[in-house]
Design brief:
Length: about 260
């Protein structure tokens, strides 16, 4: 009987841990949707080379790796790569040194490692998985939010009457409420012209971070602490969230095509 109880407690702990990981940034559906959108914009050559490096796995499956390793103490040093807190009124270049390692730094580091002929295959697999994830993170606006409120994690709100926080609303609450799989989300992304896609792909991690920060400021202004959010918030903001997923996918494809296309 004791063994059965212990096993039940262990299973409950594992499920709870998985759920906690899934709500930290874009959640699984968000990251996989961004990666699936990127897949549609990759060249055939890039798809072939990336699939080979990932041992046959898709970039959608690889997209959640950076969250999955958070439970391993050996990878705790990479946690700071998931976000960047650029003070209002500052450019990234102005505060780059004081920020230390961050999402923009992490993306650039991954690109550098993947470009280097000295990087071993196993390490290239790691940095590719990290890159796929971090580009997604950079387009979750509250990953470029305020440091003092932990990107909205300290701003308590309710989501359809249940306790949540502003960061979690953007990570997973809205996506979960929409109730679509990542393949459905990517399939139903906006239809864009070649010119629109080209315009979205312009820039780099630094300029995309500043764009997300501007959006984050609007998000902060849209809510009051402890406010109950629901249908109206979905109506106002979910279209913007879907745009962020799509931008992340297009920009990820740009980077991957440059590396492998």
């Amino acid at each position: 009987m004791k063994k059965i109880i212990s096993l039940s407690v262990l299973l409950l702990f594992c499920v709870t841990s998985i759920k906690a990981l899934a709500t930290e940034d874009w959640g699984q559906n968000g990251h996989r949707s961004t990666a699936q959108i990127a897949q549609k914009h990759l060249s055939k050559k890039a798809i072939k080379r990336i699939t080979k490096l990932l041992d046959g796995n898709s970039i959608a499956i690889a997209s959640t790796y950076a969250d999955e390793i958070k439970s391993d103490k050996a990878f705790r040093g990479y946690n700071k790569w998931h976000y960047v807190n650029i003070p209002s009124g500052k450019t990234y270049a102005e505060v780059e040194k004081e920020l230390g390692e961050n999402a923009v730094w992490g993306i650039e580091e991954c690109i550098s490692k993947l470009q280097s002929e000295d990087t071993e295959r196993r390490d290239k697999q790691f940095y590719l998985k990290m890159l796929i994830h971090l580009v997604g993170d950079l387009h979750q606006p509250l990953h470029v939010g305020h440091a003092y409120d932990k990107g909205g994690n300290d701003i308590d709100v309710k989501w359809f009457g249940k306790d949540s926080n502003l960061h979690r609303v953007w990570d997973s609450n809205m996506i979960d409420s929409y109730d679509m799989s990542f393949t459905e989300l990517s399939t139903h992304a906006r239809k864009l012209s070649k010119t629109e896609i080209k315009d979205i792909a312009k820039g780099n991690a630094e300029t995309w971070a500043l764009e997300s920060r501007t959006m984050a400021e609007s998000i902060y202004q849209s809510v009051e602490e402890n406010k109950n959010l629901g249908y109206r918030y979905m109506y106002d903001w979910f279209p913007q969230l879907k745009i962020q997923l799509q931008k992340g996918g297009i920009r990820l494809a740009k980077i991957l095509n440059e590396l492998y296309g």
